[in-house]
Structure formats: C-alpha cells, structure tokens
Amino acid sequence: MSIGRAAAAIAAVSALAACSSEATSAPPESAAARPEVFGAAGYRGIAPGMAKEAAAATGKLANAPVSTLDGCTVLSWQGGPAPDQARLAAEAEAQRKADDLNAKADAADQAAKQPAGKSAADSAKAAAKDAEAAQLSADAAMASADLAGKREERDKAFAAAGGASFGKNGVHELGAPPDAKTAEGIGVGSSLADLHKAYDGRGLKESKAGRLELPLPEKPGWQFEFTPTADGKVGGVAISDGALKCR
C-alpha cells in the first residue's frame, strides 16, 4: 500500500472512531428540553406553601390580584387574565354584604332567644324580635347565595387559566395553565376517560363540589383537583390543600 493510500485509510478510520465516540458519549436529553411536569413540587418555580413575596420574586406571576374573595389573593400566571376591576368590586361588595347580614342575623337570633316577660307588651316585643330575626336570616341567606355565585365564578376562571391562590400560610392552591401536563400527561382538554385510566387505581374520587380529587402521597394534606366539563373533558387541573377560605 502506498504512503498516500495508507494515510487516507488512517484518516477515514480516525474520523469513523470520532463519530462513534461522539454518538456514544452524547448526553441524554437535558432536563431543560423536557416539558415541565405540573405536580406536587409545583410549577414554574412556585411551590405549595411558598410565601407570596417569594413567589412574586420568581417573576412567573402577575403583580395585581384577579380575586381577593374569602381572603384568598389570586394571582394569574404572567400573560394570563388581567384584573377586572368591576369584578373585584362586585366580589368585595358581596363579601361585605354577606358578612354584615350574617353578623346581624346571628345577633338578632340571640336576642330573640332571650326570655320574655309575661305581659302583653313583653309578648309584642318578643314577636317583633322574632320577626326581625327571621327577616335578617332571609336577607343573610340571599347574600350568602350571591357570595356563593361569585365564588363559583372565581373558581371557573381559576380552573380555566390557572395561577396561584395565597392564604395566611402562603400558596394554598396552584392552578395549571392550559398547556401544562401532569407526569401522566393529563391537562386541560384531556378526556375524562384518560383521567380515570391514569388515576382510578391511585384513589381518584369525586368530591361534593363535583371535582375529581386525588391525594398526593409525596405532599401530605395536598391533593390534585381536576375540574370536569359537560363534554367529558378536563377543564382545569390544580393542586390544593383543600382549604375553602383563607381567613
């Protein structure tokens, strides 16, 4: 073999070995390239129980709340729904009215239970107190129903867009944005059939509120909450500590 041909053969072998070495030593797909999982560890750096200040510092959440109902401060993900001032005002008024009327109804009920004298005048006063208590109770019930309606509106918006809801102890509920998925690939738009297939064997059950809940063993006291839609799909995914109010 001539020197030229030998040199060419050696170069070819070296190139083939280099390619083989690169293929063998190529690192696996980086964690950054894989889709982030929505789950017990949280999402986008926002973790269950994280203080509001620390969560805000990540830059992943909007600055102004979209709801403050029941003492819960709800922040959207960056790029999510902006605060609706009319809705915020309506929530605040519904909360104030319900709180006020319920307090008055409780006080009137206690007053009506006080022993009354035996005179006609005393009987008349007692009857008036009973009537007042009954009216306040009815008014309080209507105000509470209105407040419940505002709560339902807030929950629907939260399920659709996701975000973080903060109470006294930090994040108490974290809602997935529409493009997020759990480790099993369940997200907004998934079929309920796929949801049941993924989680029935792990304790998925329906709550009184109509959501489908799944305990999170790695985060005791927390659970997945899947909001179903009328057309048999998942309309929202969240992890929550189960608290209904933040005050």
SSE blueprint and pairings:
Elements: H1 3-25, H2 52-57, E1 73-75, H3 85-112, H4 120-161, E2 163-167, E3 170-175, H5 192-199, E4 205-206, E5 212-215, E6 223-228, E7 234-240
Antiparallel strand pairs: 1-2, 2-3, 3-7, 4-5, 5-6, 6-7
Helix pairs in contact: 3-4
Overview of this structure, please?
- By secondary structure, this protein is an alpha+beta fold.
- Helix content is 43%, strand content 13%.
- The chain is built from 5 helices and 7 strands.
- It has helices spanning 3-25, 52-57, 85-112, 120-161, 192-199; strands at residues 73-75, 163-167, 170-175, 205-206, 212-215, 223-228, 234-240.
- A 7-stranded antiparallel β-sheet has the order 1-2-3-7-6-5-4.
- A hairpin with a 5-residue loop joins β6 (223-228) and β7.
- The longest helix has 42 residues, at 120-161.
- Keywords: Signal.
- Residues 1-17 form the signal peptide.
- Residues 93-107 have a biased composition (Basic and acidic residues).
- Residues 82-124 are annotated as: Disordered.
Could you write a compact summary of the structure shown?
The protein has 247 residues and is of the alpha+beta class. The protein is 43% helix and 13% strand.
Write a concise keyword list for the protein shown above.
seven-stranded antiparallel β-sheet, 247 residues, alpha+beta, disordered N terminus, 7 strands, 43% helix, single chain
Intertermini distance: 89 Å
Number of helices: 5
* Sequence stretches where pLDDT stays below 50 over 5 or more residues: 1-13, 15-24
Helix content: 40-55%
User: What structural category characterises the helix and strand content?
Assistant: alpha+beta
Number of strands: 7
Organism: Amycolatopsis albidoflavus
Keywords: Signal
Protein name: Lipoprotein
